[in-house]
Design goal:
Radius of gyration: 21 Å
Structural class: alpha/beta
Largest sheet: 11 strands, mixed
InterPro entries: Amidase_dom, AS_sf
Signal peptide: 1-25
Distance between the termini: 16 Å
Domain Amidase: 52-161, 172-390
Strand order of the largest sheet: 4-6-5-1-8-7-12-13-11-9-10
Number of helices: 15
Pfam families: Amidase
Shape: globular
Organism: Arabidopsis lyrata subsp. lyrata (Lyre-leaved rock-cress)
CATH superfamily of the largest domain: Amidase signature (AS) domain
CATH class of the largest domain: Alpha Beta
CATH architecture of the largest domain: Alpha-Beta Complex
Length: 456
């Protein structure tokens, strides 16, 4: 089981719990089971939601002392599952939402108005009370999903200090599928923020189809997030599941934007065999400036945006030990041993606290990033008539983040040590239909993912 961290606030925040080892109930195995598998088992009465929840809770109990992947489980999960089972008995199961009765883990930066905490991995927010469910949680509940608990993350989404190691409180290296939607497709209301210009909420699942089913459940307009108003116009009628087609690579123009790697050679052959037009050795203009962060102006803008957006989030809480970034800094100093301030510091927090809103310097940084995006990824894709840019690992993260562009990461292999690596497909804003076609067709043509193994 894994959590996906923020990479300059553009990460994916929802995890679907299909990453646990084998367990059996009747003739049903949860290992590598998809949403469709679970839905069929429900229909054929080989499985109940309560049984499924109990299997996952048992697996978490066994594995969490090793993996530390789940911060807490929901004491109401079994009750939610029982309700789902009763609803299924009373209604035609085929007419219920596809997530009905399916357990979902939420990253611990996504607010839930229940018995669960929302802490962003920090003791400073332990015991805080949110005003309402995050919009994406509300949509999940409406879809019938069972909220199983909160998943771990790098504290404050890795934005407290440059020295904090990942996972203290990693996605292309976890052999899972992650979808980062275009900014605005999913609401950020009720999520501990970094930058409303970049933050994007999306799913992490085992398969592209599972991730797309979850994406369909959480996209849409939210009056509490103004970015969703214009973005919602780009949500296709009938949702995104219609783009799950094995012929999705046929005719697609893909640009490889990384140095030659032997790991990619075989995949390029596969992409071409499946009908894609692959253009090698492309370079995103200004890539080194974007990745560098400082010269791009991203760091200047993010620091100011973080202070403003976090202060706004904290002030809206019904109850909280901290009400501002300054309070969080003071908390960390007071409880320095608990928060390991001596080891990891909090220099990002301190630098952000020194900012004073969006002044001329910050506005100039924002304008520079718009120009970098317009003269970088947008120029390359339009001049080359590309449907997607392609690279291994998470090297596209900064490029996609600063422009609010979408991306999908799919398992692509394992190194000599058995560590997974992924392949990323990125595109222009609201190009999710094309990216889903590409990612799903690649996944189905390769079927690389292996079930995780845990050595006792």
């Amino acid at each position: 089981m894994v959590a996906l961290r923020f990479i300059f606030s553009s990460s994916l925040l929802i995890l679907l719990l299909f990453l646990l080892p084998q367990a059996l109930t009747s003739m049903f195995s949860i290992q590598e089971a998809t949403i469709e598998d679970i839905r069929l088992a429900f229909k054929e009465k080989r499985l109940t939601s309560k049984q499924l929840v109990e299997l996952y809770l048992e697996a978490i109990s066994k594995l969490n002392p090793i993996l530390h992947a789940v911060i807490e489980t929901n004491p109401d999960a079994n009750q939610q599952a029982e309700i789902a089972d009763k609803e299924r008995d009373l209604k035609n199961a085929t007419k219920l939402p596809i997530l009905h009765g399916v357990p979902v883990l939420l990253k611990d930066s996504i607010s839930t108005k229940d018995k669960l905490n929302t802490t962003a991995g920090s003791f400073a927010l332990l015991g805080s009370v949110v005003a309402r469910d995050a919009c994406v949680v509300k949509r999940l509940r409406e879809s019938g999903a069972v909220i199983l608990g909160k998943a771990s993350l790098s504290e404050w989404a890795n934005f407290r200090s440059f020295s904090i190691p990942d996972g203290w409180s990693a996605p292309s290296q976890s052999s899972v599928v992650g979808i980062k939607p275009s900014v605005g497709l999913t609401s950020r209301a009720g999520v501990v923020p970094i930058s409303l210009r970049q933050d994007s909420i999306g799913p992490i699942c085992r398969t592209v189809s599972d991730a797309v089913h979850l994406l369909d459940a959480i996209v849409g307009y939210d009056p509490l997030d103004k970015a969703t108003k214009s973005a919602s116009e780009f949500i296709p009628e009938g949702g995104y599941k219609q783009f799950l087609t094995t012929s999705g690579l046929k005719g697609k123009r893909l640009g490889i934007v990384m140095k030659h790697s032997s790991r990619l050679d075989h995949h390029i052959k596969t992409l071409r065999r499946e009908g894609a037009i692959v253009i090698n050795n492309l370079t995103i203009p200004n890539m080194e400036v974007i990745v560098g962060g400082t010269d791009s102006g991203e760091e200047i803008a993010l620091l100011a945006e973080f202070k403003m957006s976090l202060n706004a989030y904290l002030k809206e809480l019904v109850k909280s030990p901290v009400r501002s970034l300054a309070d969080v800094i003071a908390y960390n100093e007071e409880f320095a041993e608990q928060e390991k301030v001596k080891e990891w510091g909090q220099e990002v927090f301190l630098t952000a606290e020194a900012t004073n809103g969006m002044g001329e310097k910050e506005k100039a940084a924002l304008q520079k990033m718009k120009e970098l995006s317009r003269n970088g990824i947008e120029k390359l894709m339009k001049e080359r008539n590309l449907d997607s840019i392609v690279a291994l690992g998470s090297s596209l993260s900064s490029v996609l983040a600063i422009g609010g562009y979408p991306g999908i990461n799919v398992p692509a292999g394992y190194d000599n040590g058995g560590v997974p690596f992924g392949i990323s497909f990125g595109g222009l804003r609201f190009s999710e239909p094309k990216l889903i076609e590409i990612a799903y067709a690649f996944e189905q043509a390769t079927l690389i993912r292996k079930p995780p193994k845990f050595i006792a």
